[in-house]
Amino acid sequence: MKFNTKTIHGGQEHDKAYGAVMHPIYQTTTYAQTTPGGHKGFEYSRTHNPTRAALEKSFASLEQGKFGLAFGSGLAAIDAVMKLLKSGDEVISTNDLYGGTYRLFTKIYEDFGVKFHFIGMENADRIEDFVNENTKLIWVETPTNPMLNIIDIKMAAGIAKKHSILLGVDNTFATPYLQQPLTLGADIVMHSATKYLGGHSDVIMGALVVKDEELAERLYFIQNASGAICGPQDSFLMLRGIKTLHVRMQRHCENGKAIAHYLNNHPKIEKVYWPGFESHANHEIAKSQMSDFGGMISFVTKGNDYQQAIKIVENLKLFTLAESLGGVESLSGHPASMTHASIPKEEREKTGVVDSLIRLSIGIEDVDDLIEDLKQSIG
Fold it and tell me: Going from the N-terminus, what domains does the chain have, and what CATH number goes with each?
């Protein structure tokens, strides 16, 4: 089954009770049993729910995995991965990553005795320099948030396998439409499904997908024991959003390409970060592991003027100034004061997240209207 068909049919079946084409919302906490322990596969909705189960099958299908897990948010999904670790374990992580992930790592799990090494992974062979007997996880974002750096998943997977370390990949920016890390050797794929998978800015959710059954069982246990699950209504909304993922991503990519080139040729723009440019440091790796380059773009104006950056995002009319990304509507953001504010300034700036950086999530509106909006705002 090809990807465009999987978004609609992958892992899905018609409702057995009445043949409903859309999977029903099982808005229930508990299920009748004929005898203690005698049930039809569901006993309590924290553990299993039919609507969530259908969604988890869809997640697994999209990512070429065998087991999918749905959580109440992307951070809840990452938190479940971190619970595979114990005090004294070490994690090698991308240094350019979502601020909420950085906060979870440094403000929660460092206090539990987990040690983190935040490194630039643009040259993925650097990872091996930080591997030791305590290393249990390599955590990768690619493309990274918000600098759009590209990390070689195959190379990272080779290092992980060599040292019997888990490799987790945050695939939120690329989505399985553009990139499937499990096929490149990753052990765990994570999504903030809130973003492109849902696609309509109306549901918060996280996802994990794995191939290994033993790893899946450990994660299912954590999911149930910790309880950070999503509800049936949210599961239904996510299933609905996924059905148009392929057509949305095609337009996100088309619009993103046009706007990246527009900004790159603008006399007031100093630098545009987008992996589709041949000048991008890891453009060839992006071409090899992605089918297109996505709808996320970051840029700075000439002079790296903070006030100018604020003025631009405030003056945009079609691009809404807001947190998040990946919805059908275009969004703008100022990472230093919004999505990455939890990262200390000196750490942010080491990765390029300067106070003048603007991040755009390119929606599926008419691209000419989006360019006109940027033109009137930048001047």
Answer: 10-242 (3.40.640.10), 245-378 (3.90.1150.10)
